Amino acid sequence: MALPVGQRAIADFPRFGLPQYADRFPQTVDAISIEVSDVHGNAATISDELGKLEKITQISDFHCVTTWSHLQLKWGGYRFKDVLEKVIEPALGAPVNTKYAIFCGQDGYKNVLPLQDLLADDIMLATEIHDQPLSVAHGAPMRLIAPAHYGYKSVKHLKRIEFANDLSGLKTPRFLKFLFHPRGRVDLEERGEYVPGWALRYLYRPLIARTRKKFETAMARRRG
Ligand SMILES: Nc1nc2c(c(=O)[nH]1)N[C@H]1C(S)=C(S)[C@@H](COP(=O)(O)O)O[C@H]1N2
Ligand SMILES: [Mo]
User: Fold this and answer.
1) How far apart are CA 153 and CA 102, in angstroms?
2) Residue 199: how many CB atoms within 10 A of its CB?
3) Is the C or the N end of the chain the one with fewer CB within 10 Å?
């Protein structure tokens, strides 16, 4: 199968992200606890309720916006649509029909996807990779997996989901605004909102090696 435009396959699956998150790690990896909130002031915490959902696995490709792709990753966990309908909405006591969901990680990282996109069958809250619990490097204890969107949407170490009608809860630093896209679909090369996708390829590629190294070094230091 052909790779999406601008992407190149790599053999390993690096711990990766914005450099300022390389040294930040989750505080809790052995228990899942997700705060959810809507636009009506409803809020709840989700944990053991997930256990009653059907567990699914799926094999999908992972495409980082900086142009590396890792093909054929096997994820295990829950379908996001199931979690929304069977756990989140009952917990909030109201249907969710906001425009967006903002995902927040224990390391302070945040990103957003339109609610419509999140209802696709391949969007998961993953707790396993290749039949093993998620490692700290790859998002323990639970992460979003959105295979049709660039990797920066797949928030790791999930701790909060805010359903919202605007992006004011994101507070993206100004210098990152032009590297951000509210949707980030890989097929349409939505790398950023204001700069053409093909142009960002050339900006990002030279940064990959350094970023990988930074994340790897930070992880090794944490292990001690
Ligand atoms: N919490 C959190 N989630 C995150 C990031 C991060 O730094 N922190 N980086 C994002 C980016 S840019 C990418 S490409 C993927 C990388 O996932 P990996 O480290 O499992 O390869 O995680 C995404 N989700
Ligand atoms: Mo990324």
Assistant:
1) 10
2) 11
3) C
**Which of 103, 132, 156, 214 gets mutated to test ligand 1 (max ligand atoms within 8 A of its CB)?**
156
- pLDDT digits (tens), the chain, 224 positions: 689 999 999 999 999 999 999 999 999 999 999 999 999 999 999 999 999 999 999 999 999 999 999 999 999 999 999 999 999 999 999 999 999 999 999 999 999 999 999 999 999 999 999 999 999 999 999 999 999 999 999 999 999 999 999 998 887 766 677 789 999 999 999 999 999 999 999 999 999 999 999 999 999 999 87
Q: With CA atoms as reference, report the closest residue to 99 among 168, 163, 190.
A: 163
Give which of 119, 113, 127 is closest to 88, Cα–Cα: 119
Surface-to-core class of residue 163, CB atoms within 10 Å of its CB (0-12 exposed, 13-18 middle, 19+ buried): buried
Backbone φ and ψ of 197, nearest 5°? -55, -45
The CA-atom distances, in angstroms, between 128 and each of 25, 51, 70, 140 are 18, 14, 16, 9
Whether ligand 1 lies within 6 angstroms of the CB of 67 is answered as no
| DSSP codes of every residue in 145-159 | E-TTB-GGGS-SSEE
Residues shown for the chain: 224
Q: Are 64 and 156 in contact (CB under 8 A)?
A: no
